[in-house]
Structures are given as C-alpha cells and as structure tokens.
Design brief:
The structure is a homotrimer. By secondary structure, the first copy, chain A, is an alpha/beta fold. In chain A, about 35% of the residues lie in helices and about 35% in strands. Chain A has one domain (about 5-105): Macrophage Migration Inhibitory Factor. Chain A contains 2 helices and 8 strands, in the order βαββββαβββ. The longest helix of chain A has 19 residues, at about 10-30. Chain A has a 4-stranded mixed β-sheet with strand order 2-1-5-6, covered by helices on one side. In chain A, strands 3-4 form a two-stranded antiparallel sheet. A two-stranded antiparallel ribbon of chain A has the order 7-8. In chain A, α1 runs antiparallel to α2. The interface between A and C is medium-sized, with 29 and 25 residues. β6 (about 90-95) of chain A pairs antiparallel with β7 of chain C, so a sheet runs across the interface.
C-alpha cells in the first residue's frame, strides 16, 4: 500500500528505476513487493504563462512507519531519481490512517 | 464536496456506476447530489519496468462524517466497483478541515 | 514549495493567470517565486453517466502559514480564477509537515 506518486519525471525514466527502487524499498519497509504502486502522473506544469518542466516531485501515501524508515525511504527515492539524470528531487509523505483505509468493505 | 477520486478503473466503467453510486451516497451522507464530484484520474502505473493495471483505488476527500457513515460509504463504493467486474477495490478517506476549505473567499 | 494543483480549469486560462497570480502570492506569502509550482491536472469528471465540467477546484499543498495568510491566498486564487470567466472557485489547503518533506535526502 505504499503509493508512490511521481510528478515531473519522464515515463521511461520511471520505468527504468522501478524494479530496483521497489527491490530496495521492500527491504527498508519490510512489506511485500506487490503492496507498492508507482504512479507516473500526467499533468501540465505552468510558470509565467508557459508550460514548464519541474524537478521530480514525489508523494508517498502510506501508513506511518516512523522517522528512520521514512528517512531511508526518501533517501532511496532521491538516489534513484538522481541516478537517472535529475539533479534534484523532492519527496514528501502523507500519512494514511488505518481506520480510514478499506480493502473492499473492511478497514485496517 | 465529497470528492471521489478514482484510479485504475476504465472510464466507461466509472460512467456506468456514476448515477447509482451518487444515488446511494446521497442517502448515506445526506448531502445534495451536486455536491459530489467523481474524478477519473489519467495516470500510468508502473511495476518492474512496465506499465501495468492496478486494482481500482479510490480516495474520498471530504469533511469527517464519523466512522459509521464512512464505513457505509466505503461499502457502497466497493460494491459498485466490484459489480462492474473488478474483484477488489481499495478506498481511503482524507479529511478536509472547515477552516481550510473555501468557497470563493470564504471558508466553511 | 507551495504546490498549487488546479482541476477543472482550461489550460490556456491557467497560463493566462499564472504570472500575476504568482506575483501576488509571492507578496502574500513572502517566499521566492521559484518555490511555487502550478499544476493543471488532466482528469475526467463524471456525473450521471457522462463527462462533465466542474467549477475550478484548487488544492494548495504547503507548510502551514496561519489563517490570515491562508485567507489572503485563497482570496487571491479565487479572484484570479473568477477574473478569467468562471463564476465560482473552491480552494482548499493541505498542510505538509517539515519532518515529512525532503529535499533530496534531507527533511526540513
């Protein structure tokens, strides 16, 4: 259920990092590989009247796993993104609550 | 203002459930029909180097209405999605705060 | 880092307001121009079986800046959107936490 939502990164580059990123996050987080989703968002970014590129911007929606695991997750994501040619990445975490997350009719 | 944000579901299937889903949610939540928005997100999901399909994943952004109404809302969404051919749906709720939600210049 | 995420507004209209909106927000918020991102989301909105238009709906993801600056930010956004021909805009704020927001490996 960690949802990795990526903006501002080319689709082919997302594909290229996807396997080794999930390999590493699976170790850090300790959850099964198929819990992860990686979403490449299709949006337009605008500045001063024109479409523009942004540095990769990543949101992780997940259940809170504490500062240490979060730090290592952000570091793994940043390292993967920078290894694919970007100089800079921003990553932020949105905490989901068990009582508000449902598989079919049942919440966690 | 309940915003129903759907990922991983075919647009035609979203259209097909949209009327009866809002009919039911209107009863559960007790708010006018035109308060709802249903958004079908255009994104690419990636796993292991390739584009992939995900099970429908639904986020509801709304003002908190308590666990019971939330449970029934999730159940209605899950039932509608599974009735359109998916075996599994995940639904989660993001709570918006009155003091941070504005109609034009005025917050709730 | 204020992320201005706009749904339901034509791309050309987003472009048309982007310069003066950031000019004004820069004054209100007191942060550098290049901290802002304006994202025009590509989604389909559905009601009663058909694709539909919605009134512009804007989410701001940012660090909390207090009610007064938030009120003035919402007012500036609403005014800009209505000046481009829409009668109504809704704007809501999602607060990001310093300890969960990273530039590369380092959180705020």
């Amino acid at each position: 259920m960690p949802q990795i939502i990526i903006k501002g990164m080319e689709l082919d580059k997302v594909k290229a990092i996807s396997t080794s990123l999930v390999d590493e996050l699976q170790q850090i987080i300790g959850c099964p590989r198929d819990y992860f989703t990686i979403e490449a968002v299709v949006s337009s970014f605008i500045m001063d009247g024109q479409q523009t590129e942004i540095s990769p911007l990543v949101e992780i929606k997940w259940f809170d796993r504490g500062q240490d695991i979060q730090d290592r997750t952000a570091a793994a994501i940043s390292r993967h993104i920078r290894s694919s040619g970007y100089s800079h990445a921003e990553t932020f975490f949105t905490v989901l609550e068990n009582s508000k997350y449902y598989e079919n009719e049942t919440h966690y």
